[in-house]
Design a protein that fits this description.
The chain is built from eight helices and eight strands, in the order ααααββββαββαββαα. It has 302 residues and is of the alpha+beta class. Helix 1 runs antiparallel to helix 2 and helix 6 crosses helix 7. The longest helix has 50 residues.
């Protein structure tokens, strides 16, 4: 009877060593591909940096610094993404670029839902930088915030408020919301209300207040200042002084202070008192004496 040879049972250590040996052989076989992919990625990184620099430089010459930063980042990212796809094809020859694109197409749907807000702010920022409703240095008001635009990023717009705080507002909120650009034009109109008594010369007061405002440094001569009557009130007639200044808030605020001070001085110089609210208080005597005599029970004070 012929004997059957049974192969010796390998120990676990032998199996591990054999597996490591196979991996090592596969690694050394892939060394040329790894080196080629690394060199390609290095060259692609240099190309991406150069392209980003060129985009940034071109747009900075046209005073589109924020747009240049955003487009440079997008160009760098796209070039590196394509480079990674080519490097993957070099490392794994069996993987075709079409398969990678198909995988990215399926995954982009999930990525789009996961990063919906980020992509929305990115596109809104791109539209803001392209259409330029405002730019760096403009003074804007968005919702409850007002200040100077510092930077327009891919996700948000940075505003420095007048009291020295930084507000970060998502670009989508700015693009779809109401934004007041205070420095969109070189000049803007400011106004201040004040009252004048019914017995004073209304037309004369309007004339000398207008002349007073016109002489203040910083008030625009064209269009010139004016004073109009607004309404009747309980103790006076309300007048409104209007004038034009430079759009910057710091300048407008200081000129407004000088206008208010000049109006007060002009009223004093012309002998016109600015009326103030008065109040009549009636006191009823309940002591029992002369209770029916109303003339003695009422005391008028202001």
């Amino acid at each position: 009877m012929q004997s059957v040879r049974v192969p010796p049972i390998k120990q676990p250590g032998d199996l591990i060593l054999a597996k490591l040996h196979v991996w090592a052989n596969e690694f050394f076989l892939q060394v040329p591909n790894i080196a080629a992919a690394a060199v390609f990625l290095l060259l692609a990184w240099g190309l991406a940096r150069t392209a980003a620099w060129g985009v940034r430089k071109l747009l900075s010459r046209r005073e589109r610094i924020d747009l240049g930063e955003l487009l440079a980042s997008i160009a760098f990212g796209l070039i590196m993404l394509l480079a990674l796809m080519v490097a993957a094809a070099i490392l794994f020859p069996s993987v075709k670029p079409a398969d990678i694109l198909a995988t990215l197409g399926i995954g982009s749907v999930a990525i789009g839902f996961a990063f919906k807000d980020i992509l929305q702010n990115l596109f809104a920022g791109l539209l803001l930088l392209t259409r330029r409703p405002f730019r760096r240095g403009d003074e804007i008001a968005v919702k409850d915030y007002e200040g100077t635009v510092e930077h327009i990023e891919s996700r948000a717009t940075l505003i420095r408020t007048y009291d020295g705080r930084r507000v970060i507002i998502p670009n989508a909120d700015i693009y779809t919301g109401v934004v007041v650009v205070n420095t969109a034009f070189a000049t803007r109109r400011d106004e201040a209300d004040f009252g004048i008594g019914y017995n004073d010369d209304l037309a004369g007061a309007m004339t000398f207040v207008t002349d007073t405002i016109r002489r203040i440094d910083g008030v625009e001569t064209e269009p010139g200042p004016e004073v109009i009557a607004v309404e009747f009130r309980d103790g006076d007639v309300r007048l409104r002084a209007r004038w034009w200044t430079r759009s910057a808030r710091s300048e407008a605020a200081h000129i407004r202070s000088r206008v208010v001070e000049a109006i007060l001085q002009a009223f004093r110089a012309h002998g016109v008192d600015l009326p103030f609210p008065t109040q009549i208080v009636l006191l009823h005597d309940r002591s029992g004496q002369n209770e029916d005599d109303r003339s003695e029970q009422r005391l008028r004070s202001s």
